[in-house]
Specification:
mainly alpha, about 65% helix
Length: about 90
């Protein structure tokens, strides 16, 4: 009964963890180098600071693939396993 809840929380946590933006944008706005950059901050910098919209779109597709892969892995790790009976 808890499996659907566990899968939902796991997938939303994966999505939320991969989309961290505010901390790196607001707390560390002018750090030298890429010490505090996340994938979504990198996407934002490419699109709205360097105006490379095509590259930013490609980064967003990459983020989607990574989130989908982690979600599928999490789904398979929490799937219900069948128990074989020895009759």
């Amino acid at each position: 009964m808890m499996r659907p809840m566990l899968v939902f929380v796991l997938i939303t946590s994966i999505i939320g963890g991969m989309q961290i933006f505010e901390e790196s944008h607001l707390v560390f706005p002018h750090v030298v180098g890429n010490a505090q950059i996340t994938m979504v901050k990198y996407l934002y910098d490419a699109a709205f600071e360097r105006f490379q919209f095509g590259f930013a779109a490609a980064v967003s597709y990459g983020i989607f693939v990574i989130i989908a892969a982690f979600s599928i892995i999490g789904f398979f790790l929490t799937r219900e396993r069948k128990v074989k009976s020895h009759e």
